[in-house]
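Hi again,

Forgot to attach this to my earlier email, sorry! This is the prediction with heme C bound. I've pasted everything inline since the attachment limit keeps bouncing my files.
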Amino acid sequence: MKGSFLARKPFRPVGRLVGWLVPILVSLFILSCGDPLSDPEVQKQRESVPDQFRPGFDQYVVNNCQACHGLRGGGDGPLNKSRRFDTPNFRQADSYRHGSSIAEIRNSIEFGVNGGRTGMQAYQNIGPDNLTAIAQYIRWLQQ
Ligand code: HEC
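Structure tokens for the complex follow:
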């Protein structure tokens, strides 16, 4: 009797903990992999952005603008390694072709430029507040 009690009981709490913990840890891992903001390079750039422009930076990343424009707006994103997209340098106000003010930048994002033919499509799925936040982040890059 005593022997069988010892053989069964001690492992039960451990089994229960592992049963819960493993799926939770696995889900957290999968979630963190899918989040573009968790990329170390993105994190590094994010730290250099003042607090008030971080929501715009986050939206810039989540909407994949950096794929062409690069994290700091230099046009050096992963989709543009070959420079097939002729992007302006967001850090230089005089390189913009469609206006460098917050309102003009917001307009370029919402409606695209040149009907999307040169690579910049309209982003009508981005909500008004997020459009403004992204435009403010890009404007901040100009300093
Ligand atoms: C597929 C590549 C690509 C992606 C993704 C992309 N852009 Fe562009 N973007 C371009 C190109 C190319 C231009 C220049 C087009 C031109 O001047 O004819 C441009 C132009 C712009 C301009 C106008 C700049 C000027 O010259 O006045 C703004 C602002 C802009 N993009 C913001 C964004 C934002 C914000 C996002 C994400 C929501 C984004 N872009 C996503 C390729 C891209």
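Residues 60, 63-65, 67-69, 79, 85-88, 96-99, 105, 108-109, 113-114, 118-120, 123, 134, 138 surround heme C (CB under 6 Å). The two ends are 79 Å apart (CA to CA).

That should be everything now.

G.
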